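Subject: Interface between my chains keeps coming out wrong

I've been trying for a while to get a sensible model of this assembly. When I model each chain on its own everything looks fine, but I need the whole thing in one frame so I can look at the contacts. Pasting all components below, labels as-is. Any help appreciated, I'm running out of ideas.
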Amino acid sequence: MPDHTAQTSPIIDVQDLTRKFGDFTAVDHITFSVGAGEIFAFLGPNGAGKTTTIKMLTTLLHPTAGRIRINGYDPQHQQDAVRKSFGIVFQDPSTDDELTAWENLELHGVLYGVDKALRRQRMEQLLDIVELSDRRDDQVKHFSGGMKRRLEIARGLLHHPKILFLDEPTIGLDPQTRNHLWSYVAELNVQEGITVFLTTHYMEEADKMAKRIAVIDHGKIVALGSSAELKAQTNTQTLEEAFLALTGKGIREEEAGAIDNMRLHARAWRGKRR
Amino acid sequence: MQTIYILWLRQIKRYSRSRSRMIGALGQPLLFLVALGFGFGPIFEKAGGGNYIQFLAPGIIAMSILFTAIFSGMEIIWDRQFGFLKETLVAPVPRLHIMIGRTLGSASVAFLQGFVVFLISMLVGFRPEQWGLFPIALLVMFLIALIFTALGTAIASVMEDFHGFQLIINFLVMPLFFLSGSLFPLQGLPTAIDIIAKLDPLTYGIDALRGTLVGAAHFGLTLDLGILVVLVALLMIVGSWLFSRIEV
Ligand SMILES: Nc1ncnc2c1ncn2[C@@H]1O[C@H](COP(=O)(O)OP(=O)(O)OP(=O)(O)O)[C@@H](O)[C@H]1O
Ligand SMILES: [Mg+2]
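Reply #2:
Try treating it as a single job with all components included. I did that and got this:
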């Protein structure tokens, strides 16, 4: 029986969490908890329900059923208290293209009530870390995909929350930036005791960073434990092998078609407007 | 307060950076002023309506505010598609403040657009007849901007994508404009049109503009202003309620 509970007192506590879209069950009765100061990873194939879970934990989606506590609060009914507890780097882009890198960070800092002196200091520091200092006054629409990603990450780290959600933060990043990012996150975790909840498709990142890993497939948690435990449980040598043993080798269809189409429409429309 | 200010500022920055959008949005009012103003002017005068440009300009100013305000309010759909909306929705600030900041920003943009159209109408020959009431005219312009930004926000909060966009334009925005008494006087209309015009919020905005700019309010300035203020309050409440329920 995998160990579903955190060692320390849980800062994220989830019971029987379920989310349906119509008849389709994206997240299916999952139960787990994350201890304060822990680094916890969600691993799962495309469409497993990772992002949907994070959206429910972060007040963006209402659960169909189940119970969530974030820092002791309920995301459905105590939204403000929950929102004060976390920071998030989304899987999808969420910066404002028309604003500059600096303005995006500034807006975020103001929304999160980081006072001016500290805000400016961190903005400079983070832009250095993601190597965007020389482009800080460029509009984000002129950035490459990787640069946009780096800006998103810098922004997510600007206020130091109790819990940091990182939904595939390193997607599209070069190895240098990936290394920088993870060492900075590890530093925040140790120095400020920030709890980290991450998802990734890079097994070595989960292996290196996370104390415990939940493997999720078709909306269900199929295994939960440390990397060593998962390997032992599946009789495998590497986390990747363990992952494949747990989730099978078939490729998942991603039902992103509809959303991609919408984005395309949006772009065409915007183009006309300009 | 800071939240409201920074989101207001964002709307202003976005607007000031898309110059082509600004200029594009001026083409239509200019066309209406010139084509209708000069085209219908002689007939209108013969029918005893007086100078048509004097009559038309307040309607066209209101039209440009209506269009800009609704579309700015609906920018939420873009922000949803391009992801920025998520960034504001998870922030630890009341959604009401987010909604107010955005709405004030978009309304300011629409107001500015209306003011530029006012200047253009002066070029075409429009002359306000009572400068003393001009500050009130500006207030009316801002109220119109607020009403329709809030309406755009409310609509965009329940729309997932752009599929309904054409519908909104053809069945809401255009009727709001054409049936508001923007192009024709409200006296002696067939009953059906008269009722529709009286249900159209823009009617009272335009009437108040005529009242303040050329001294010819059909319903009277007090009634117009009263209705506009009530509508602002009502739509802000509905808009922020719908906005607070958005899921992404
Ligand atoms: N708004 C929605 N409406 C309908 N279905 C949805 C919606 N959002 C997600 N889904 C579906 O729920 C399932 C889980 O999606 P989710 O985004 O949580 O996957 P994920 O684990 O994050 O995958 P990936 O690794 O590709 O990011 C998918 O099948 C997806 O199509
Ligand atoms: Mg995902």
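Reply #3:
Confirming on my end. Chain B touches chain A through 34 residues (CB under 8 Å).
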